[in-house]
Design goal:
Blueprint (H helix, E strand, L loop, with lengths): L5 H12 L2 E7 L12 E6 L5 H9 L4 H5 L8 E6 L3 E5 L10 H15 L5 E9 L6 H13 L3 E6 L6 H14 L6 E7 L8 H9 L4
Parallel strand pairs: 2-4, 2-5, 5-6, 6-7
Antiparallel strand pairs: 1-3, 3-4
The structure holds guanosine-5'-diphosphate (GDP).
Length: 210
C-alpha cells in the first residue's frame, strides 16, 4: 500500500473530487438499498473523526455531517462516488452504547447490512491514534471477523501525535490486530486536519472501485 505511483494518487484524487452525493439512509434492513456498486464502509467509535475523514477524503465540508443531523445518526448512510463506488457511513459506536441492548441494536443493523452484501469490498475501521484500540473497537473487530468482512484499520487525528508517538501507535495497533483473522495486514495513519495519509487511503479505496 505504501508503494503507490503518482499516477495512482492523481487518479484517486480525481475520483474523490468528482461527483459525490447522498443517495440513501437506512435505519433498518428494509431501507438498505439494493446491491448496485462496489461498497466501502466506514465505522468507528463515536467522535473518532469519521465524518471529518469522509468530508476530507471527498473535499466536501459537510457531506457526512449533513446526513448526521440529530435523529439520523443511527442509520447507515450511502454516498455514491461517481458511477463506480458507494461510500457507506455506518453508525458510530461509543462508550454510552456499551450497554448490552445498544450493542445488540448496533450489531443487528450492521449484521443486517453485512448479510448478503457481496459487493462490500472493505470496511474502514477508524481508531483514534491517541487512544489506540479500545474494548469497543475489539468488539467491532470480532463482529467483522465473524462476518468474514475484510477490514482496514485507519488511525485518525495523527496531527495530535509526534512522529515517535505515531510510530508507537501504529506498532501497538498492529499488535492489537493479531488474531483478528479478517483484518487487512496494513495500518494507515491519517489526519483530516493536515491531510496526512489521505492520498494513500484514497488509493486504497479507489483500487476497490468498479
Ligand atoms: P465522528 O463522530 O466520528 O463523525 O467524529 P467527527 O468527525 O465529528 O469528529 C469528532 C471531533 O474530532 C471533532 O471535534 C473534530 O473536529 C475532531 N477531529 C476530527 N478529525 C480530526 C483530525 O484529523 N485532527 C484533529 N485534531 N481533530 C479532529
Amino acid at each position: 500500500m505504501s508503494e503507490v505511483s503518482p499516477e495512482e494518487i492523481a487518479a484517486a484524487k480525481r475520483l474523490f473530487a468528482g461527483h459525490c452525493e447522498f443517495v440513501a439512509g437506512a435505519a433498518n434492513f428494509e431501507a438498505i438499498p439494493a446491491l448496485a456498486l462496489p461498497e466501502v464502509a466506514f465505522v468507528g467509535r463515536s467522535n473518532v473523526g469519521k465524518s471529518s475523514l469522509i468530508n476530507a477524503l471527498t473535499g466536501r465540508g459537510a457531506l457526512a455531517r449533513v446526513s448526521q443531523s440529530p435523529g439520523r445518526t443511527r442509520q447507515i448512510n450511502f454516498f455514491q462516488l461517481g458511477d463506480v463506488l458507494m461510500l457507506v457511513d455506518l453508525p458510530g459506536y461509543s462508550y454510552a452504547q456499551v450497554s448490552k441492548a445498544l450493542i445488540a441494536e448496533w450489531q443487528k443493523l450492521i449484521f443486517d447490512y453485512l448479510r448478503g452484501r457481496p459487493n462490500l469490498k472493505r470496511v474502514i475501521l477508524l481508531v483514534d491514534a491517541r487512544r489506540g484500540v479500545m474494548d469497543v473497537d475489539r468488539e467491532a473487530m470480532t463482529l467483522l471477523d465473524r462476518a468474514a468482512v475484510s477490514y482496514l484499520v485507519v488511525l485518525t487525528k495523527t496531527d495530535k501525535l509526534s512522529a515517535a508517538e505515531r510510530a508507537e501507535a501504529r506498532m501497538a495497533t498492529g499488535f492489537a490486530l493479531k488474531g483478528h483473522i479478517a483484518a487487512y495486514p496494513d495500518i494507515l495513519t491519517t489526519s483530516s486536519l493536515t491531510g496526512d495519509g489521505l492520498d494513500l487511503l484514497r488509493c486504497h479505496i479507489a483500487a476497490l472501485a468498479g
